[in-house]
């Protein structure tokens, strides 16, 4: 029982102790400071005792009845500023601003604030207002309106710097000072802004006018594009309408056009039939008339050419025989002369040898040698002259035989030459048609046949002209041709003259192609 009483007493004592501890233990909030008075204390960080103790952010034991505890708020406070000021220019202004402040966090600031505002914390804003109002008036009095407007930061910095010492004594610190507005009862600031406002208004009006002009131009361009689109639409509509009208007219004309086309096709077919019939008649004429005539002409031409070739071969054989005989005779004469000269020379030498012993050997030998040389030269000259005369006579006979053959077979010779050159003649005649871009023929296919027939008959004209030219060259009174031929026969041995009808070897030359002209001078 005694134990129970003791336990109960102990429990009561514990409860009492806990209750007393709770009553004596005080804890400072983060945004407040506990100011404990009632005993002399020395706060760390201070040079002298304050007579009270400051506790922040922790708990402390307070003896009830012996010590008193008060709280000092460390929260931010705000003070509005509305200060009547006069500038350096004497212009009255009203400055509106705000000051945000609080009690300093250090013990000195808390102690200074506790002494001044512990029981009058609500009056803290008024005190701050009065401090800043005085300094603000002083600073504004040294500035112009233009400086205040251009550099408000300067005004704010000077005000904070000027009030810093007083705020420190009050235990307060300024977190922010802002100048919201500068009121101008006299309208000075408005007048300052008037030129700029006018310039801005002017620029605004100019910009508006430019915008209106651009808008008007854009509208006009839009109207022009609309008109152009309308025009293009009307043009397209007109084109479509014209195509529809054209199609309708073509549909109306389809019947007559088809009938005309059918008639045209009939005419074309009839024309084709007529052309085929004309071609058939022409082919029939070729088979019945022209082919036999061409065959007969070819037969006559072939026989004439064979006869001409026979005569020419005979003449050439006779000329060669005469030439060979003359050459043989010349060789014989030359050989005989050479033999006689050698014999004479031998006799002279023998005679010189025979008479050398008599004392006249040298003179007789010289005389005999001279006579022998003279005789030999004379014999050699006679032999060469005889050989040249024989060769000239042979060539003259060959030329005469060829001229006789040409006179008797003029048509055959000319026809042969024309036949050899006929491809070149036809090619030269066809080249003239190569430069023709457009040719109009009359009388249809018959006109073309007549044209080519006339072109081909030009060969006959050339044949007649060639025949006349050869006859004129072989006329008896033409001494211009006979004379050179005779002279050629005399001098051919020396190799100094050759007639146009002969070659240097004495053989007849081929007839050369002579350009023929008509009376008008056209080839």
UniProtKB/TrEMBL annotation:
<dbReference type="GO" id="GO:0072659">
    <property type="term" value="P:protein localization to plasma membrane"/>
</dbReference>
<dbReference type="Pfam" id="PF01145">
    <property type="entry name" value="Band_7"/>
</dbReference>
<feature type="compositionally biased region" description="Low complexity">
    <location>
        <begin position="478"/>
        <end position="502"/>
    </location>
</feature>
<comment type="similarity">
    <text>Belongs to the band 7/mec-2 family. Flotillin subfamily.</text>
</comment>
<keyword id="KW-0472">Membrane</keyword>
<dbReference type="GO" id="GO:0002020">
    <property type="term" value="F:protease binding"/>
</dbReference>
<dbReference type="Pfam" id="PF15975">
    <property type="entry name" value="Flot"/>
</dbReference>
<dbReference type="InterPro" id="IPR036013">
    <property type="entry name" value="Band_7/SPFH_dom_sf"/>
</dbReference>
<feature type="domain" description="Band 7">
    <location>
        <begin position="27"/>
        <end position="212"/>
    </location>
</feature>
<protein>
    <recommendedName>
        <fullName>Flotillin</fullName>
    </recommendedName>
</protein>
<dbReference type="InterPro" id="IPR031905">
    <property type="entry name" value="Flotillin_C"/>
</dbReference>
<feature type="domain" description="Flotillin C-terminal">
    <location>
        <begin position="372"/>
        <end position="473"/>
    </location>
</feature>
<dbReference type="GO" id="GO:0005886">
    <property type="term" value="C:plasma membrane"/>
</dbReference>
<feature type="region of interest" description="Disordered">
    <location>
        <begin position="478"/>
        <end position="523"/>
    </location>
</feature>
<dbReference type="InterPro" id="IPR027705">
    <property type="entry name" value="Flotillin_fam"/>
</dbReference>
<dbReference type="InterPro" id="IPR001107">
    <property type="entry name" value="Band_7"/>
</dbReference>
